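Q: Could you predict the 3D structure of 1,4-alpha-glucan branching enzyme?
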Amino acid sequence: QDDNAICYLTLANDLIHQVNPHAITIAEEVSGMPGLAVKFEDGGYGFDYRMAMNIPDYWIKILKEKIDEDWKPSALFWEVTNRRYEEKTISYAESHDQALVGDKTIIFHLIDADMYWFMQKGDENYRVNRGIALHKMIRFLTATTINGGYLNFMGNEFGHPEWIDFPRDGNGWSNSFQQIGRHTNTPPCQ
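A: Sure. Here are the predicted structure tokens for 1,4-alpha-glucan branching enzyme:
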């Protein structure tokens, strides 16, 4: 444990809230350090919120390891509420850490290539229908069990099919950030 770093973060949070009482600080860390998102006056480090980083990791893990018929509701509930009650958290279902490093987005785990061929009005595709229902359920469960706030994923939760990657030599310097914008060239609804 780095006492100097902890002291710095505590003093920085105290100063931030003295300078701007409306400021919000959010800790992104995975150690589970007690008191991180507890007020300084109450013996904490002064962050207003802690990122609930276990939740997006859990969703990807369960999507990779189990079919949805084997998901246990009690295990799902325990995972999305696994936090100290006195610490407010920012919950989120999907993480840029997964999508930026070449893994699949949640919707792509659920629907895969059927997304490209069976998403128009009138299509009846079991995998797409089930995937969209599970996508909604994952976000609903995550959003309704928060203890603080909810963080939207890139693209405002519309289930973008492609993963996002920084332009680099390994992907031919491709700019995949175009995947996160709203497309205005779609035909009007009829």
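Q: Anything worth pointing out?
A: The longest strand covers residues 49-51.
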